[in-house]
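Submission sheet (multi-component)
Chains listed below:
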Amino acid sequence: MFDANIVIAGISDALTLYNLFFVLLGVIIGQLVGALPGTGPVMAMAIAIPFTFALDPLPAIAFLVGVNKGGLVGGAIPAILINTPGTPDAAATTLDGFPLTQKGKPEKATKMALYSSITGDAFSDIVLFTVSPLIAAVALKMGPMEIFALMVFAFSVIAGLVGDSMAKGIVSAALGLFCATVGLDPEHSTPRFIFGFFELYDGLPLVSVALGMLAVPEIFRRLAQIRGKISPAVEFSKTQKKEDRRVSWTEYWSCRYTLLRGSIIGTIMGAIPGLDSSAAAFMTYATTKQTSKDPDSFGKGNIHGIAATESANSSVSGANLIPMLTLGIPGNIAAALIISALMIHGVQPGPLLFHEQGRLIYGLFGALMMANVLNLLSGLLGLRLWSRVIRSPESFIFPTALLLCIVGVYMATGGLLGVAIMFIFAFISYLMNAFGYSAIVFVIGFFLGERFELTLSQSLNLIDGEPTLLIYHPIALVLFALAISSVYWFSIRPTKRKQR
Amino acid sequence: MTPRDQSRGVAAQSSRKFWMTLNRISGLVIAVLGLILLFWIIPRHTETVDYAWLRPATLPIITAVIVIISSIVHLIFPSGKAEFDIALALRAGLFFVISLMGLSLMYFVGFLIAAPLLVMVLMLLIGERRPLWLIAGIVLIPLAMWSSIELLLNRPLP
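Outcome: structure written.
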């Protein structure tokens, strides 16, 4: 399984100037969009996917990973400076970041966020490099029945954790799976739900669905919310003391246990499909406050508060690639978008990925490492610039983003039908979000749909339609039992508790 | 508590009840959608095959049944919430319709004319009046996109 030549070749692929350029570009774009409240790396990744068609798989994926990582750093900047998180992940950073700005130390706060973010990110990447090949080796021993059962289990967990109700989560996942059945069926190659459009023989375009469900409704929502003038952003005071502009080594080192705690919590939560980074950030913040000798200082500009939240939310980004690369199950929406990009480039995520595309995966690991280094450099150099970016008017950003979505989908699908599908899904997503049905679960269901149907078909053939033969697949049985128990855990148990 | 506060409290309570009811009704709507899928759309848009374990309609039927069962569960035991700002939704709907009109215009007159018009309408509707930002959004961005895609990448735009 482990071949040093492939590892070295993969990492050296990532270190070419060409690939490093795309990592750097991704990091810069990520930091830029992260710094703009309301946009964020997910929207940027969704818009960027069609533009990566012209690239090879490694620079394309490295670019998207760079956008994601840069976005996590950028998101903290408006959270700290104007008390408005650039991304939902940075919501917890406002708790101590903004009070520190009010004390006249905005640069110290943003730099601490940057260092903490890089620390957490690097920690989770190291775990990803070491753990993923081992999990993939175990996953390779799994047959279609086990993979099918694993997907059922993953759906039950994701439906329970994402969104506000288990029943709604299951509806979203089922609707996503249903939409994935559009096109030719895998066993008989007969067309389904094409409504006379021959372009739909290949199924609904991934890019149209991803952008339609995630980016476009958010653009419409933000456009609808704009009222009056954009308020000016914070200015860096020229009278700041030198020690208030930087984070000393002593200050950073004093946060080592906080950073480690945040990184561990974030990595564990990131590796579980369905849990998002804001949950990790708030959990770490609460734990850090509880264990602190001076809990009253939290919420008033304590540097440990920033260290806790930023290390936790950034460590999620590397960890959620663990289930994606090893099992083909996206842990969160950023991972789902990376999966869609891999699929568009003809790479099928899952346990075979390490075997069939080892060089690409180790190249991706190399790109992840370099993204951390470039994130740090770009963050240090661009901090002041990004803080000015906050002042760009939304009236300019969102119409531009909408135009980018239209152009991107047109290029990817080669026609206006793809763009029309994107708008239909934007409408569906808007309604789903309004009534509490998770668009994220829908998209994950849609991405996994094709594989779900294939493994279901293989499993039914394996057991020849005889359910009693399931006893020869104990792992699958355990996973089915876990799926049922997670439905109980996330829906029936809380209801009973409430009744009490 | 003043009578004004009391009436505000009553209004808030009735508003909460309204949204809770709407949340519950969303289960009914989804259940009806599931039934339409199961009895109307799936039979008409899948082919009948009389062999193999997984037929073209098998997974769609499974998902439709799951949708119906889950939405009925939600109808009986509603949880979560529905949050729908009608004024905001109408405004978002307006932008949606404008974008669709922009898309239709792109089909007839092409990107280079329709894109600046679409951006201009959106920016003016939001309330942007600063000439520099208007020029950047209406002229520079569509032109940059067109030149980078049509001229540099040599790919066609509508």
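Remark: Chain A has a mean pLDDT of 83.
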